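Narrative progress, year one. The postdoctoral researcher (J.K.) led the effort to move from monomer predictions toward full complexes, under supervision of the PI. The following entry was the first complex the group processed end to end, covering 983 residues in total.
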Amino acid sequence: MTASALRLSRTGMSAPVLRAFRRAPSGMIGAGVVAAILVVAVLGPIVFGDEAQERDLTNASQGVSREHLLGTDALGRDILARLIVATRLSIGLGLASAALAMVAGILIGVSAALFGGRARVIVLRTIDTMISFPSILVAVFFSVILGRGVTGALIGVAASTAFHIARITSTLAISASRRDYVDAARVLGVRGRPLVVRYVLRNIGEPLTVAASVVVGSSIVTISALSFLGLGPQAPQYDWGTMLTEGVKAIYRTPAAALGPAGAIAISAFAFAFVGEAVARAMNPRLWTAPSGRAARAVATAPAATLVEQAAAAGRARPDERVEVGGKDGPPALEVTDLVISFPSAQGATEVIKGVTFSVGEGEIVGIVGESGSGKTMTALAVAQLVPYPGRVSGSVRLHGRELTDLSRKELDSLLGNDLAVVFQDPMASLNPRLTIGTQLGQAVRVHKGFSRRRARDLAVRSLAEVSIPAGETQLGRYPNEFSGGMRQRAMIAMGVMKEPSLLIADEPTTALDVTIQAQIMDVLHDINARHRTSMILISHDLALVKQNCHRVLVMYAGRIVEDLEADAIRTQAVHPYTKALVGTVPEIGQSRTGPLPDIPGEIPDPADPPPGCPFHPRCPLAVDRCSVERPPLLHRGGGHRAACHVANEGVE
Amino acid sequence: MLELRDLSVRYGSGRRSLTAVDRVSLDIPSGATLGLVGESGSGKSTLARAIVGLLPIAGGSVRLDGADHTRQAARTAPAYRRRVQMVFQDPHSSLNPRMSVGQAMVEAVGKREGELSRAERRAEAVRALESVGLGATALERYPHEFSGGQRQRIAIARALAVRPQLIVLDEVTSALDVSVQATILNLLTDLQREFGLSYLFVSHNLSVVSLMSEAVAVMYLGRIVERGPAGDVFGRPRHPYTQALMKSLPSLSSARAHAPVVGDVPDPRNLPPGCPFHTRCPVGPLTRPDRSVCLEQDPQLVASSQPNEAACHFAAAPGGAASEAAGAHV
C-alpha cells in the first residue's frame, strides 16, 4: 500500500522535475561539467593510468610544453595525466564523505525534530557544541585518530560536516513538523516513516539538496586540504590534494603544477553547487507549471511595507467615470480620480486597479468592501502612496487639494507622519519589537514636529488615553510583545492619530481580533472621528462591520468600484447584483435555514485575463447579452448613489 | 455519539503549566452538529485537537459510542482515526504542498478498513472528490493550483475518504471569503445529510455557528460558560459573556452598539479568582460592587428549568433580565 503510493508519487514527479531543471541555464552548465568530471573519474585511470606512472627523470620538473601540457613532476611524470587519474580518488572521496555526512546529519537532525522535551534539547546542544569547532580541526582530529590514509580522511571529513547538516535539518524539520498538514496526516493515521518522508523530508528537500551540493563541493576541498597536510591518501595513492602539495613546492619554477590541481578542485566544487541549486529549484511543484496571472495577483495582494517609486501621473481620460466630487458639507478631504495600478507580468503589465474615482468628505467614514483580490487594499495603499514595488500608479490623489502623486520622498515621509495615518491588520508587523511603546510613540512627534522629550512624552500619554489605554504613563515603558493584540492595535491607532491627521486609513484593523475587542476598537475610531472630524477609510471583508461603522460604502469588484452608496442603504437600496449577492451571503443570527445559504458561484476573474464586458457577468444571475460585450459605466443615480450595471441602470442617464 | 466528561487539557507542567481546557463536559449527538463558540485563547481549538488525538488529555473521559477512548493510545489507534476526522482552518497549510491531490487522496483512502487494490483506491479517491464537487481532473494537480475554497473542499474530501462518523471542523471557513464560506457551509450540510455525519463545528463566528448547529456551547478561558439548544442560546442567551458576544457581533440588520465589555481576556496562566469573567463582566462586581460572590466562587454549569445552562451566579432568566433569585442560593 505504502510502496504503491510512493510509486505513484515518483512517476508523478520525475518528469516535471526534469522539465523545470532544464529551464535553469546554470544548472545545465553545472550538470555538463559534473557529467564530464564523472566520465573522467571513471575512464581516467583506465586510459591514462600507465602514462601517469611513466617516469622520465631526464625530463623532471619541467614547465608547460607541447608534450606535457601541465609540465612534469619531480620524477618526470606527466602532471596532466596524473591529475586525470587522481580525479577518481578525489571525487570518489568527496562524494562518499558527503553521502556519509548527509545520511548521518539528516538522521541526527530528524531525530531531534521527532524527539520532544529533554531528548531534543540534548541532541540540539550536542549539535551546537560540535559545530562550534572548525570543520578542518574536527577532520584532522578524526583522521589522526583513525590513522593517516583514505579511511581516516573519509570519516574525518564526514564527521566534520555531518553536524552542520544535522543543524540545518533539525531547524527545518522542527518547523516543518509544526505545520498543519503534518497534524492533518496524523489525524488520518499516517505515522512512522511515511510521515517523516512524505510530510517532513519532502518539504525540506529543497534546502537540503542545496546543502548536499555545497557539502559535496566542500568535502572535495576539505579532503584535498587533509591530503595537502599529509593526512589523506598515502603514496603510492594520490589525489588532487597530494598533487597540490607537490606542486606548491615548485610553484616558482612550474606554476602549472600547483594551478592544475587547484583549478580542478575549484571547478568541481562550483559545478556541484550549481547542479544542487538547480535541482532544489526544480523540486518545487510551484515552478512546474508556467507562471500565470495568479502570480501577478499574489504580488498585488502582498502587504506593502516600503515607500515606493512615484508613478508618472499619466492621467488617462475615462470620461465615463469622471465625477464631480463634493460632499454633503463643503469640499471633500480626499479626492481620488482615475486611479490605475499595474504590475509587470508575463503579458507586459497587469492592471489590478482599473480606474477608480471616489471622494471622502471631511469627517466622513467611507468603507471599502469586496472579496480578496478585488483591489480594496491596493486602492488604500495607493492613497497613502505605499504601492509596493514594482507596481505603477497613475491618476490623481488629492488630500485637501494637494496632489500627493507628485510629492518627493521627503514630502511623503512628512505627509505620512502628519496629515495621513495608516493602520494595518497586523499591528505586530508595524511595531518594532525592540523598542518600548513610549519610544515609538515619542519618536514620531520628535522627528516630525521637533518636540522635546518631555512634551513628546506628555503627548504620548494623552494619545494613549484617547485610544482608551489607561495609565499611559506606566504603559510607555512596555514592549509591544507585552501587549495583547487589541492593545497593540490601540497603540498603533494612538501613534497614527497623535498628530491629528485629517485622514486615517484602516486596512482590516480588527480582522485579527476577537469580536468583543473589535467592538472596542470601533468605539475608539468613532471617538476619534467625532472629536477631531478625522476622515476615515475603513477597509474590510466584513460587510456588516462596514455597514454599521461607515457613512458610505464603496463596493469593489475586479479592480473597479461597482457600487457607491450610503452604508445604511446597503440592504435595502443596493442595485448592483454583486452588492446584493454579497449582502445575501452575510450570515445572520436567528436566520431561518430552510434551503441552502445563498452564495456567489464562480470565482473572481484573473486580473491578467478578465472576461470581456462586465467583469461580473460570468457570475451574475441577471446578465443579458450586452453584459458580455460592453463594460457598464459607473453612473450616478442621484443622492450620491453610483452603480455600474447595465440592467440596474436601465433608464438612468 | 461522542461524550466528553470533565475533560481537561494542560500545556506544560509545574508552575508554568496552563490549563487550556478545564473540566469540559459535552455531548455530540449522532448525525447532528454541536457548535463550539469562543474567542482566541478560549481553548476551543485545544479541545478539538484533544478529541482527534493530537493532544493528550490531563483529566476526565472521552467515550465514543459508549467505549472509553480517554487513553492517548486509544485516540491515536487506527479504529478511532477511521471514525473521527478533522478539517483544519487554513487549507493553504493543511494540505502538503509537495503531494498532488491524487497522492493525498489515495493515501487517505488507504487508511480505510480492509485492503483495496490500487485501482479501487483511485476510484474511491475520485468518488470522494466528486462528493465535494471536484472531479478526477483534480488528481494530478497540486494544492497551489486551487483557490482557497477549492482547497478547503479537497481537505474535506480527504477527511471523508476514510468514511468517518464524526468530523471536527476547526474554523473551516475563517480563512475564506463570505461568498465561498456559504458554498462550503452548504456543502457540509449536504454531506451531513448524505452520510449521516456528526459535526463538532468550532468557530469564533457566532452567526455561522448559529446556522450550522443544533446545539451550542460557549467557551471562555477553557470553560463552558453556556450550553444548550442553538435556538435558546442565541435566542435568549443567559450568560453575560454570551450576551456580550452577541452584542459585539456586527449585523446588517441593526445599528452599531457600543462595546459591551471592557478590557482583554485575562492571561490563562494567571486566572482571576472566582468567576474568570468577573474582570470584564457588565453585570458583575465591576458595575455591582455588592456582587462579591463573583470574586470568591467559581460558578458551575447547573441544570435548571431553562433548556440552556449558564455558569453564572447571576445568570439571566429566559426573559433577559438578570435574575436575582439565581444568585440567592449562594
